[in-house]
């Protein structure tokens, strides 16, 4: 990441001192900086020097003189990079972020790599996936589904089960709840941007997004940059566009960031004020709208092995992993958020189940009752000695 040689805070930011708590925070008129970002007041000594006139080397010397002579240059650059990632600095990164934040649509990031970028080729590709498994003796009018977002190239056939169960779904709104792989700005991330894929434009229901914000009653960031590189929703979008090319519908997108802190504290997410308020608001807004929703939950299961930080190979663990994953899918299929949390917390989320936050949000918001588990799979990535697992559940 390239940092300006003379870093500067964005001029429009206002530094606010909270004397009662001895912290400082930022007020951003554009809403790009997350509202819960705080620093100890001592940090103001550095912030005052971030005016675009002082070099990184001079800033480091100031820090060493005032605080710690042994403060390493690499540590300091990481600190500045973090400030940049938080969109506090006037930098090339912020310029790119602002360009995205001010756009009215989110462009597909997987086209041409994960799936074909040419529309007719993409339709053929998706239909081959849907036809890759035998017809199942289950209805095709599901009202909700928990679906993977793993790369089509390694597990494409596993999308056939849930999306075939949606072929006759009746809806005029998609509530799309997915894992946020890149966001950290808030517990829940919304956007009013449309989504563009090779198969066309999916309209976001801006009125419902704003109604949801109002109904939550607590601050939610308007920084939606986490959507720019995200694939969790996109891989579902193209299937929906393929299956329903003439359907008139809008989407209410929700990305959910980490719930690992709840696992760490052994505290059910529903005890958190923002989680409880958001899930209640999501349910109320959808009910009040009078719309016919199809609810899609995007999440994979475990991420284990050396690629993900484990000190052991994944392959010998796959049988055990399958048994543990079935417990997770069973909890989801039972519609029980308590059972899901207990199952994941039992191991401290050691398997890094990325579908946990969106699944928990769905179960808490909609209390869907019992569903049907359709499929389970594992991608054993031998070159990296790692594995990712995934499964699908639908509700009728």
Briefly characterize the structure.
This protein has helices at residues 44-47, 56-66, 73-85, 92-101, 119-130, 152-155, 160-164, 206-216, 234-243, 260-265, 273-289, 318-333, 337-345, 356-366; strands spanning 14-18, 23-27, 38-40, 105-107, 144-147, 173-179, 188-190, 194-197, 200-202, 250-256, 293-298, 303-305, 372-381, 386-395.
Structure, explained:
By secondary structure, the chain is of the alpha/beta class. 35% of the residues lie in helices and 18% in strands. The strands form three sheets. Strands 5, 6, 7, 10, 11, 12, 13 and 14 form an eight-stranded mixed beta sheet that branches. A three-stranded antiparallel beta sheet has the order 1-2-3, with no helix packed on it. A three-stranded mixed beta sheet has the order 4-8-9, with helices on one face. β8 (194-197) and β9 form a beta hairpin. α8 (206-216) crosses α11, α12 runs antiparallel to α13 and α13 runs antiparallel to α14. The protein starts with 13 loop residues before the first strand and ends with a strand.
CATH class of the largest domain: Alpha Beta
Order of helices and strands: EEEHHHHEHEHHEEEEHHEHHEEHHHEE
Kindly name the structural category. alpha/beta
Mean pLDDT over all positions: 94
Q: Got a strand count? A: 14
Instruction: Kindly estimate the percentage of residues that lie in beta strands according to DSSP.
Output: 15-25%
Number of folding domains? 2
Instruction: Give the CATH H-level superfamily of the largest domain.
Output: LigB-like
CATH topology of the largest domain: Protocatechuate 4,5-dioxygenase, Chain B
Helix proportion: 25-40%
Query: What would you report as the Rg, rounded to the nearest angstrom?
Result: 23 Å
Distance between the termini: 47 Å
Give the CA-based shape.
globular
């Amino acid at each position: 990441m390239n940092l300006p040689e003379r870093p500067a805070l964005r001029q429009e930011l206002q530094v606010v001192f909270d004397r009662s708590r001895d912290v400082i925070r930022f007020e951003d008129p554009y809403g790009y900086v997350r509202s819960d970002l705080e620093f100890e007041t001592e940090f103001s000594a550095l912030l005052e020097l971030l005016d675009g006139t002082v070099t990184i080397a001079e800033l480091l010397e100031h820090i060493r003189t005032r605080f710690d002579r042994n403060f390493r240059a690499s540590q300091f650059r990481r600190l500045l990079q973090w400030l940049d990632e938080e969109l506090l600095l006037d930098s090339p990164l912020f310029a790119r972020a602002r360009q995205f934040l001010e756009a009215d649509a989110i462009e597909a990031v997987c086209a041409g790599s994960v799936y074909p970028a040419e529309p007719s080729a993409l339709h053929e590709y998706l239909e081959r996936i849907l036809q890759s498994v035998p017809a199942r003796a289950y209805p095709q009018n599901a009202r909700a589904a928990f679906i993977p977002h793993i790369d089509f190239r390694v597990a494409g056939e596993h999308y056939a089960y849930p999306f075939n169960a949606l072929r006759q779904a009746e809806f005029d709104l998609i509530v799309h709840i997915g894992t946020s792989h890149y966001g950290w700005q808030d517990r829940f991330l919304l956007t009013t941007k449309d989504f563009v894929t090779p198969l066309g434009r999916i309209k976001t229901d801006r009125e419902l997004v704003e109604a949801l914000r109002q109904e939550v009653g607590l601050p939610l960031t308007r920084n939606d940059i986490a959507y720019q590189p995200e694939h969790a929703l996109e891989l579902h979008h193209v299937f929906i566009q393929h299956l329903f090319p003439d359907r008139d519908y809008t989407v209410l997108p929700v990305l959910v960031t980490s719930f690992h802190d709840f696992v760490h504290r052994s505290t059910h997410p529903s005890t958190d004020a923002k989680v409880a308020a958001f899930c209640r608001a999501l349910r109320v807004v959808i009910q009040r709208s009078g719309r016919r929703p199809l609810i899609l939950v995007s999440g994979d299961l475990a991420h284990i092995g050396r690629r993900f930080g484990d000190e052991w190979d994944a392959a010998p663990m796959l049988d055990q992993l399958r048994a543990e994953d079935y417990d997770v899918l069973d909890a989801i299929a039972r519609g029980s958020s308590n059972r899901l949390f207990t199952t994941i917390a039992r191991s401290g989320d050691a398997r890094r189940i990325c579908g946990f936050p969106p699944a928990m949000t769905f179960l808490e918001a909609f209390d869907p009752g019992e569903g049907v588990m359709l499929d389970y799979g594992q991608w054993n990535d031998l070159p990296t000695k790692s594995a990712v697992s995934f499964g699908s559940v639908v509700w009728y």
